[in-house]
Design a protein that fits this description.
The complex is a heterotrimer of chains A (about 450), B (about 200) and C (about 1000).
Chain A: H1 6-16, H2 22-48, H3 63-87, H4 93-117, H5 144-177, H6 180-189, H7 197-230, H8 242-268, H9 277-308, H10 311-322, H11 326-338, H12 346-349, H13 352-379, H14 394-417, H15 423-428
Helix pairs in contact in A: 2-14, 3-4, 3-7, 3-8, 3-13, 4-5, 4-14, 5-6, 5-7, 7-8, 8-9, 8-13, 9-10, 10-11, 11-13
Chain B: H1 2-28, H2 56-62, H3 67-70, H4 85-92, H5 106-117, E1 123-124, H6 137-143, H7 147-151, H8 168-177, H9 190-193
Chain C: E1 42-43, E2 59-64, E3 73-79, E4 82-88, H1 101-104, H2 106-110, E5 120-122, E6 128-130, H3 133-145, E7 150-155, H4 161-172, E8 178-180, H5 187-197, E9 202-205, E10 212-216, H6 227-238, E11 247-251, H7 257-260, E12 264-266, H8 273-286, H9 304-311, H10 315-327, E13 331-335, H11 345-358, E14 366-372, H12 380-391, E15 395-401, H13 405-408, H14 415-420, E16 424-427, H15 434-438, E17 441-442, E18 453-456, E19 461-465, H16 478-489, H17 501-508, H18 514-522, E20 524-526, E21 552-553, E22 558-563, H19 577-581, E23 589-590, E24 594-597, H20 599-605, E25 612-617, E26 620-628, E27 637-640, H21 659-662, E28 679-685, E29 693-694, E30 715-717, H22 718-721, H23 727-730, H24 757-764, E31 778-783, H25 792-801, H26 808-812, E32 821-829, E33 832-840, H27 849-853, E34 859-861, E35 867-869, H28 879-882, E36 890-891, E37 918-919, H29 925-937, H30 950-954, E38 960-964, H31 971-976, E39 981-982, E40 994-997, E41 999-1001
Parallel strand pairs in C: 7-8, 7-15, 10-11, 10-13, 11-12, 15-16, 16-17, 21-28, 22-27, 24-26, 30-41, 31-40
Antiparallel strand pairs in C: 2-3, 3-4, 5-6, 5-17, 9-14, 18-19, 19-20, 22-28, 23-29, 24-27, 25-26, 25-28, 31-38, 32-33, 34-35, 36-37, 39-40
Helix pairs in contact in C: 3-16, 4-16, 5-11, 8-9, 8-10, 8-11, 9-10
Classes of the chains: A mainly alpha (about 450), B mainly alpha (about 200), C alpha/beta (about 1000).
Chain lengths: ~450, ~200, ~1000
């Protein structure tokens, strides 16, 4: 890195903000296309009714809630990297945290859609919010779904504020080098940042506060999400292990997604200098660690089902592994427990494309984890008379795919219009420029 | 320092005062007859012209006829009835002129025509309740709720207009006020009113 | 939505006269408070109010059910001039207030969107065009004035004044050619009784008096004679808390609903009923246990050893059963059901009577104290000449009323072809059925619920039909049409002199006056003969040669058993969505037709459930779907009647194949009744893609539903109930048998049934809202020992609560809406198949999992212990259903239509739920509201038994009891602590308000 100077850093990152290339436009257009399809599916569902999606009794929740949990989970890595690692002063985060943070905000924005999409009467969604009304009615604060409303909205607020605060100095840098409309926007967004010592002093303390504020969310939000299931009486859901299990899973999937996003960025924008083996090595370690926790959770669930002697639990977990959707369970085990074990070898952790492939598997595996927990448990409930397996429809799938496009749209805009890398903090880890440096 | 302390004190004083006023106003708001806290008069909707210019002001007001004389089922059924055309004709077979008029009234003629053609009069509904709400007229009338409490001073209306928005809040407020009512305890159980 | 049945155009608008006060139709949850104030609607008063109609108050009319010949009494509930529900007439001796699923569905016959809405005349191009009644009647008269041949009048079975009128009319036209065709007319039964007792009648079968009932293919809980009455009397001896060893043994090759309630099922070969019965009689006589004569019949040739081979049952089984039959008298053996109607059906009835006689049942369980009048009918064999007359061109005018021979007669008889030879054919049918399609003129009659009429049930029991509402369509009462025609023709002898049909009827009832008014109010005149005169077999049975029925068709083929569909009956149920969506009581298949095959045979033939197959007989081919049913002999196939309509008019009824149509024209030798068990068939896959929709369709047990040891439908041996054995010995009974085995496992804590559900639950679970109950705590008890799985309650529930029907596709997806379902579980222990039926509705848990998770309080616990549901508050998160252990919540996946005028049936007291809303059983909260309203008017509390849920009201077996658990005197309170009482999944501590009483299994040692 010693070859890098402040000047070079500025140039490198600002180059990202130059006018988009053709490739970018094509990618963006494709993305919008998929998004439009997803939106069409949702509109069709609103018109005809929830039946447009393949849900039925007993599987009244399926892909939508799966996607919801999946996306909320994705968000967590961002917060972990940007907030927790910041507090721990682990420097490798500086290169990746901006992207991770962006990912968090967009993931939560995506996740937030699903509770709406899965409502039978979405036009009354506001009844879930506590607001004074002539009926004199309040929502039911005992309902885990109500907790979700607060958890997710809090998470969205905090993470977006944190995201923006982190951006301010870099927006200033961008302002200096931009022209025309862009300059106006950056000027506005950078809130008159001039980089004076006073500003830096306030900035740093504020940033620490936000980090401290965001940190507990990493644990609370996904715990609350897990309670949607843990608080119910359903065999396969009703488990005390759920909160830690979900948090670990969330970070696991989040890191997976960060890698999945980082590797192509690194290639496309030639950021090899900034995203080095060191970064991937560190992320690989987190991946491995969380994967082990998740594996432990799976094992515990199975053991408890057997040990409890509760016929409902035993039956549902036997079915999970060997029932009609057993394949989903084994995909999950393969992707979440076995493949990440490769990260034990340093050579693997530092093999960027290897990590990329592993991360893809992790994403798939974690999606299937949620699918198995939700769909399989519901399909095999207390009363054998109503046992049924669920078949997704085009609408289910369309909306789910659409959600990826929705996420992708924001991400593509992000890397084009905002500094995807923390310029200032990259400089932090560079040697301060010496007078004669310019000459040399 | 002192300034901040002053500000704090002031804020505290204001809050306490505010709370006190709020509480006292609540106290004052208590009506004497909880079943009939008073007759609302402010229109909440348009006065809609009916197929026949029937005047409640005349019949219920000037002539002082009892509501139940025409709306015969208010105490018999959950659904208050619009009088049968035959009920009107009970009088208007004989009464053909408005008082003081020489000419027979055109409106009464309309009525007679409906009756003779055996056609029902298409009255327009003014006090509409959402269909999922189960409002039992009988129960309320028997409990002693005055017609005017919900329908307003109909006996003063040449053309009837609504004076209350028949929304859940309106019902619930009254039911809350009469929860402990010994004569007619009102229920706050949802299924009592929701079909 | 995708389902075909909801895409039909709405054929007609509301009729003027039905525009009443603005409460006419029920509400919609979705529309609720989207806009306020809602757009102004009209409120139109009556011009002159009909007497005794107060808008908002229900009016009841007594009438009579015409869905089968049993003639149950009806109370037609009407609101604002529309019939909205059918309930049994409590004072009618036949059904005492109960009503079966078919009877209640008559409403959907009345409001059927496919009914003939007006008179029609056939055009040259074969299509029908609407004509006025004037034109229609003129045309009728014209043709009758100068018929191009004799006039032939086909009618359905009539047991009242109509029959007389029809005879008078046809007589006045100088013809005696009135053909009475009823598909299920029980010819064999009548002939069998003539041979045995010298009376060609239907005697009284008193199941309450019978210690043992052996049924030889008589499905008396479904279609046989008078199912509602029999279900009730059977339950009094066999169900409830009786400790009497009243037993039922079913001898049938295919397990019917009746058989599924039997204590033992003996799968005999089809057509061998007579031999089986005689074999057992022989044992009883030989062992000197006989309590009655054998009618001079020498039974030795029928000794079990000799016939066991033919009957297909080990001799020792017959011997054992014979001894039990004699031991637990008086014994009643019955036969003559459709699924036993072979070429030897009459002999089976005679043999059954012999068995009854030696079993000591004559004069008590079987007597002629009162007979069930089925009127005069022509056996199908005797129809051949009539059809010949048509073929011969001798018939100039053909009149058809109330029967559908083109559908219900074997194609081989060639009715359709013969009718083609008749120059002018008139149909009075209310439905566009196959026969009506053949006719030139259609003069639709009123539906029975719109008509005057009467019917004879038992001797001394005459019931009346009176119009419950103005006609829905432009129809005209056929008797009036005939009277008018007779007048214009100037032929008015006797009855025909009367001005109107009502006059004829009134005259037949002794003229107008107090008696007539009383009869109208009561629903008829009921002078029940209660005496049970002594009875003995008439001698000379020696002449009857008993033998096994020969089956025609491919000798190498498989015997085909045809049984009467409990839902479709003879086909008249097929156009009623309620009955189509009501699962078959044993197979639980909906909206379809299927052939039942034993699972082993399925595997042998390489078939999977739902495969599309073709059954071939010499008379034709029947295309239907294969269903693997463990309740059938491996060497037999079985299909039901009633589906496979072909007429274009009916939007719901074109499903599967018409069984009657493809049967060969073979008859019961003695009686001439159609032989439904007549052929062997060969089966071949058609290769067409097909899917059966059925409930209990879990992929884990292939729909052969088992309880998986979860104690949903529990049972207890009689010996334990009577204290002859300890409960421990009882646990021998296989999985899910007696309580949940898991509850005895270490680490599994099940909560005991609270002795006092309120007090103890309030103690154990203070939050369970038990403690809060102000005045009432509504609860229900379901006695599984009485419940026979007939599903009358399901229809009652749907009718009362505006439950939508969703169609085959949706049911197949698991989206049926019914609030109440009968779960059917199979138990197999020591090789015996046992079937358990358990009605599952919302359990109204005291600590309900669904309540705490609803984010908007759309479902909550009300102060009276109801788990209430506020549709209009529901946003559709469906969390409640996920968290419901009983999965009794139904979600509105789409907007479900009630094609007009089916929507006229909707109950205005119950919201019609729209898409996106969760719904479920409410314990008929609107009825509770109503009961309390009455009580308040009289300034008193709700009396026990005053508040009756719809399912309880109609249950023929009286298996359901509802009431106030806080009233220590109430029946439900007494039953809730019953020894047999248990709660489903009580180990989850949901404190259900529904208590089940264990089924009592009888294994009586000889």
């Amino acid at each position: 890195m010693s070859t890098l100077t402040y000047k070079k850093v500025n140039e490198d990152f600002l180059s990202l903000l130059r006018n988009p290339t053709k490739a970018w436009y094509i990618l963006f257009a494709l993305d919008l296309l998929v998004l439009a399809f997803g939106a069409a599916c949702w509109i069709y569902q609103i018109q005809t009714g929830m039946g447009a999606a393949g849900k039925m009794r007993p599987v009244m929740w399926a892909l939508y809630i799966t996607d919801f949990v999946f996306w909320v989970g994705i968000g967590h890595a961002g917060t972990l990297i940007s907030a927790v690692l910041f507090l721990f002063r682990s420097r490798f985060r500086n290169a990746i945290y901006r992207t991770a943070e962006g990912m968090t905000v967009f993931a939560v924005m995506t996740a937030g859609l699903f509770p709406l999409i899965h409502l039978g009467r979405v036009w009354f969604f506001y009844w879930l919010l506590p607001y004074p009304n002539q009926r004199g009615l309040w929502p039911n604060f005992r309902s885990p779904l109500e907790w979700d409303v607060f958890a997710v909205s809090t998470y969205l607020t905090i993470s977006s504020v944190f995201f923006f605060v982190g951006l301010i100095p870099d927006l200033a840098v961008a302002r200096e080098n931009a022209v025309g409309l862009r300059k106006k926007i950056y000027t506005l967004a950078s809130l008159g940042w001039r980089g004076t010592d006073r500003q830096w002093k306030h900035y740093n303390s504020a940033y620490i506060y936000f980090a401290a504020l965001a940190t507990p969310l990493v644990f609370s939000v996904h715990s609350v999400v897990s309670w949607d299931f843990a608080m119910s009486v359903n065999p396969g859901w009703h488990g005390t292990i759920f909160a830690p299990y979900f948090v670990a899973g969330a970070i696991f999937s989040g890191i997976g997604m960060v890698i999945t996003l980082m590797v192509p960025m690194r290639k496309i924008f030639g950021l090899e200098k900034y995203l080095t083996d060191w970064h991937f090595d560190s992320m690989g370690k987190i991946l491995l660690f969380t994967s082990l926790i998740v594996t432990y959770a799976y094992a515990t669930e199975m053991f408890m089902a057997w040990y409890s002697g509760n016929i409902f639990e035993k039956s549902v977990f036997w079915d999970r592994a060997f029932g009609p959707v057993g394949w989903a369970y084994w995909i999950m085990v393969l992707c979440n427990c076995l493949i990440p074990l490769l990260c034990i070898k340093k050579s693997m952790r530092t093999n960027v494309w290897g990590m990329f492939i592993i991360s893809i598997f992790v994403n798939i595996g974690m999606w299937f984890e949620r699918f198995v927990i939700i769909v399989q448990s519901l399909s095999h409930n207390f009363d054998p008379w109503v046992w049924r397996m669920y078949q997704p429809t085009l609408v289910d799938v369309g909306v789910s795919i659409g959600s990826f496009a929705w996420f992708g749209m924001f991400f593509l805009l992000f890397i084009k219009f905002l500094p995807a890398m923390a310029i200032v903090e990259m400089k932090e880890i560079l040697p301060a420029p010496r007078k004669n440096a310019s000459a040399a | 320092m002192t300034r901040t302390r002053f500000v704090l004190l002031l804020g505290f004083a204001l809050t306490v005062g505010g709370l006190f006023f709020a509480a006292s106003s609540l106290q004052a708001a208590k009506p004497t007859d909880t079943l009939n806290p008073g007759i609302p008069t402010k229109p909440t909707g348009p006065a809609i012209e009916q197929p026949i210019a029937y005047s409640h002001e005349l019949h219920a007001g000037k002539l002082g006829m009892d509501c139940g004389y025409c709306h015969t089922n208010v105490a018999k059924s959950g659904i208050a009835n619009i009088p049968n055309v035959s009920t009107c004709m009970g009088c208007h077979t004989y009464v053909k002129k408005a008082s003081g008029q020489k000419e027979p009234s055109a409106e009464i003629a309309k009525l007679t025509k409906y009756y003779e053609d055996g056609v029902s009069i298409p009255w327009v509904n003014i006090h509409q309740l959402p269909d999922h709400a189960n409002f039992n007229h009988k129960r309320h009338v028997k409990a002693g709720v005055a017609c005017q409490t919900c329908h307003g001073p109909v006996e003063t209306m040449p053309v009837v207009y609504p004076v209350v928005k028949l929304q859940m809040g309106f019902c619930v407020d009254c039911h809350k006020a009469n929860r402990e009512n010994v004569k007619a305890p009102a229920s706050l159980d949802c299924v009592v009113c929701h079909k | 939505m995708s389902d075909d049945i909801h895409e039909q155009p709405l054929p007609l608008k509301r009729r003027e006269f039905l525009k009443l006060v603005g409460v006419a139709t029920a509400a919609t949850a979705g529309a609720g408070c989207l806009e306020f104030p809602p757009p102004n609607e009209l409120i139109q008063p009556y011009v002159t109010a009909p007497e005794n109609i107060i808008p908002g108050v229900a009016t009841y009319y007594a009438s009579t059910c015409r869905e089968c010949p049993a003639a149950c009494g009806l109370h037609v509930k009407t609101r604002e001039g529309r019939a909205i529900k059918l309930e049994g007439n409590p004072s009618h001796p036949v059904n005492l207030g109960s009503l079966c699923a078919r009877g209640q569905s008559a409403l959907q016959g009345l409001y059927n969107p496919d009914r003939h809405a007006h008179p029609k005349q056939r055009q040259a191009d074969g299509s029908f065009k609407e004509i006025t009644w004037e034109e229609a009647e003129a045309l009728l008269v014209e043709k009758l004035a100068a018929p191009a041949g004799a006039v032939q009048f086909w009618t359905g079975q009539e047991t009242g004044t109509r029959a007389a009128l029809y005879d008078a009319f046809i007589g006045a036209l100088g013809s005696a050619d009135r053909i009475v065709h009823e598909p299920f007319a029980w010819e064999a039964l009548r002939e069998g009784n003539r041979l045995a007792f010298g009376r060609a009648e239907i005697p009284t079968y008193d199941f309450a008096a019978a210690g043992s009932v052996f049924t030889l293919g008589a499905d008396f809980l479904e279609t046989w004679l008078s199912p509602v009455e029999y279900a009730r009397t059977f339950a009094t001896r066999h169900g409830g808390s009786t400790t009497d060893a009243g037993r039922l043994v079913a001898f049938e090759s295919r397990l019917s609903l009746t058989g599924s309630n039997a204590d033992e099922w003996v799968a005999i070969k089809p057509g061998t009923e007579a031999l089986a019965a005689l074999a057992m009689a022989q044992v009883i006589v030989a062992e000197g246990l006989a309590k009655g004569s054998t009618g001079g019949l020498d039974l030795t040739p029928y000794a079990p050893a000799n016939v066991a081979e033919q009957v297909g049952v080990p001799a020792e089984v017959l011997v054992r059963l014979a001894r039990e039959f004699a031991a637990n008298g008086p014994g009643l053996a019955i036969a003559g059901g459709v699924q036993a109607q072979s070429a030897r059906a009459t002999h089976a009835v005679v043999a059954a009577n012999v068995l009854t006689s030696v079993g000591g049942g004559l004069g008590s369980a079987l007597h002629f104290g009162r007979t069930l009048d089925l009127g005069r009918t022509h056996a199908p064999r005797d129809l051949a000449p009539a059809i010949e007359r048509m073929n011969g061109g001798g018939v100039g005018v053909l009149l058809v009323h109330g029967t559908n021979p083109a559908y219900s007669l074997p194609g081989a008889l060639g009715f359709a072809a013969a009718a083609g030879k008749v120059p002018f054919k008139v149909s009075f049918s209310i439905d566009p059925d196959e026969t009506a399609q053949l006719c030139d003129l259609i003069l639709p009659d009123h539906h029975p619920l719109e008509s005057w009429g009467d019917a004879q049930a038992w001797t001394g029991v005459r019931s009346l039909l009176q119009p419950a509402m103005r006609p829905v369509f432009k129809t005209k009462s056929t008797p009036d049409v005939l009277l008018a025609a007779a007048k214009t023709l100037g032929r008015t002898p006797g009855l025909l002199a009367a001005a109107t049909w009502r006059d004829v009827l009134t005259a037949a009832w002794g003229g107008p006056g107090a008696a007539w008014d009383a009869a109208l109010a009561a629903g008829g005149s009921f002078a029940v003969a209660s005496a049970a005169p002594a009875l003995a077999l008439s001698g000379g049975l020696a002449g009857v040669g008993f033998s096994v029925a020969e089956l025609g068709g491919d000798a190498a083929g498989t015997p085909l058993v045809v049984y009467a569909s409990p839902n479709m009956y003879d086909g008249r149920g097929a156009n009623k969505p309620w009955l189509q969506e009501l699962p078959d009581p044993v197979t639980k298949v909906v909206w379809d037709h299927w052939v039942e095959i034993h699972p082993d045979t399925m595997t042998k033939l390489g078939l999977k459930r739902g495969d599309h197959v073709a059954l071939k007989t010499p008379a034709g081919t029947l295309e239907t779907a294969a269903y693997d049913y463990i309740g059938i002999r491996p060497d037999v196939f079985a299909v039901a009647t009633g589906q496979g309509h072909t007429a274009d008019g009916g939007r719901y009824w074109k499903r599967g194949g018409n069984v009657a149509g493809f049967l060969p024209a073979t008859y019961d030798d003695a009686s001439g009744g159609l032989a439904y068990v007549a052929v062997k068939t060969t089966l071949a896959k058609t290769g067409k893609k097909y899917k059966l929709a059925y409930l209990g369709g879990d992929p884990y047990t292939g729909g052969q539903s088992r309880q998986m040891g979860r104690g949903i439908a529990q049972a207890i041996p009689l010996t334990v109930v009577t204290g002859k054995a300890d409960a421990h010995g009882a646990a021998a009974h296989g999985e899910g048998g007696h309580g949940d085995p898991a509850m005895h496992k270490p680490g599994f804590v099940g909560s005991p049934v609270p002795a006092d559900p309120i007090a103890s639950a309030a103690k154990e679970a203070p939050n369970s809202a038990y403690a809060l109950h102000a005045k009432h705590k509504w609860g229900m008890v379901v006695d599984l020992n009485s419940c026979n799985g007939c599903q009358a309650c399901v229809i009652a529930c749907s009718a009362e609560n505006n439950v939508a029907f969703v169609g085959k596709e949706q049911v197949d997806k698991g989206r049926e809406m019914m609030w109440l379902r009968i779960e059917r579980f199979y138990e197999e222990h020591d090789g015996k198949l046992e079937v358990r039926h358990v009605p599952v509705m919302c359990q109204h848990c005291g600590a309900a999992p669904c309540e705490s998770v609803c984010p908007v309080y759309a479902t909550y616990h009300n102060p009276e212990g109801l788990n209430a549901m506020i549709y209009n508050r529901c946003v559709g998160t469906r969390y409640c259903s996920n968290n419901c252990p009983y999965k009794v919540r139904a979600f509105n996946w789409f907007h479900y239509d009630f094609p007009a005028p089916l929507n006229w049936q909707l109950n205005p007291d119950v919201t019609v739920r729209d898409k996106g809303v969760m719904e479920k059983c409410t314990f008929c909260v609107q009825r509770i509201r109503d009961a309390k309203d009455h009580a308040k008017d009289e300034a008193r509390n709700v009396r026990d038994g005053e508040m009756v849920t719809a399912c309880q009201q109609t249950c023929p077996a009286q298996a359901i009891v509802f009431g106030d658990l806080m009233d220590s005197e109430s029946r439900v309170r007494q039953l809730v602590d019953h020894d047999r009482g248990y709660k489903i999944f009580e180990e989850i501590n949901t404190y259900p308000a529904v208590t089940y009483l264990k089924k009592v299994t009888r294994d009586v040692p000889v």
